[in-house]
Amino acid sequence: MKTAEIAIVGGGPAGMCAALVAAKQGAKVTLFDSSKILGGQLIKQTHRFFGSEKEHAGTRGIQICAMLEEEIRKNENIELHLDATVLAAYEDKIIAYEEGDKYEKMACKKVIVATGASEKMLAFGNNDLPGVYGAGAVQTLMNVHGVVPGQKVLMIGSGNIGLIVSYQLMQAGLKVEAIIEAAPTIGGFKVHASKVRRMGVPILTSHTILEACGTECVEGAIISQLDEKWSPIPGTEKRIDVDVICLSVGLSPLTELFWQVGCEMKHISPLGGHVPVRDENLETTVSGFYVAGDASGVEEASAAMIEGKIAGLSAAASLGYDQNYAMLRKEYLEDIGILRSGPVGEKIRQGLQILAG
Fold first, then answer.
1. Which part of the chain is the FAD/NAD(P)-binding domain (predicted)?
2. Do 135 and 155 belong together in one domain?
3. With a threshold of 0.90, does the pTM exceed it?
């Protein structure tokens, strides 16, 4: 059986930062990702990041990904396994993974799970027609493979992802007919909403989709207004002719490995669903298992990177690699606190309070 000091499952922003911090402390790190390329969500994020200089403000996600990958490939303490899927994890910190045509097991001293999140679906008529996409799938098609999904789009959801992807669709030459939002207010940053509105896209709050129209593929959508109880208002139905329906209705943390090892789990709606209970060092209730990034609660990529740093530092320190530990820990905790401050981080703060309570 193969061995590792620290195994990290997931090569997105959280996993990459966890690997770099732990390796810089001196720990031997094995980093797994099921994709053929590193980066997770960063590989399709062409927009510039907000935040401070530490969180790469003003830099595009694809550029951040390239910088982190270069550091990882140069670091001799990091062993990289791409196109390798971790299938199972056990309480004694053994993981099983598939790589190529081989099934392997690895005994680890510590495990950091940074598996990210999956897109949520929305229930409506004909939602299985070709032409109904998740926003992440649309970003992957356009920004990774250079393929446009259609010509005329209805965006469902006005959070930051919905607004950003709408703008990217227009940059690619598509027409966004409308953005609809079930809530009475826009969910994303005003700066993103203002950009799409200036380009003539209506953002219809208190609206939902009732049905996708078409036989072989999407040819349109029926939308409706919602009342204060979130129920469709009869007589407000309207058809919009589109060939793409793009869903940006949230993400669910990918937590299967935590269930497998028996971590205490709680369903926290503001964090996106079931998440593992953990301490300030991001160690779960199963000793030696840590969580970071969207698997701990859905947030922006900047928060995922800082959580990765905290988890990587904590796991390394628990193995005796603790140079400048107190200083770095204080710095990272302050950084995440600042990032979650103010009205933007209210939902996350609320979720963390519920989790701790």
1. 5-308
2. yes
3. yes
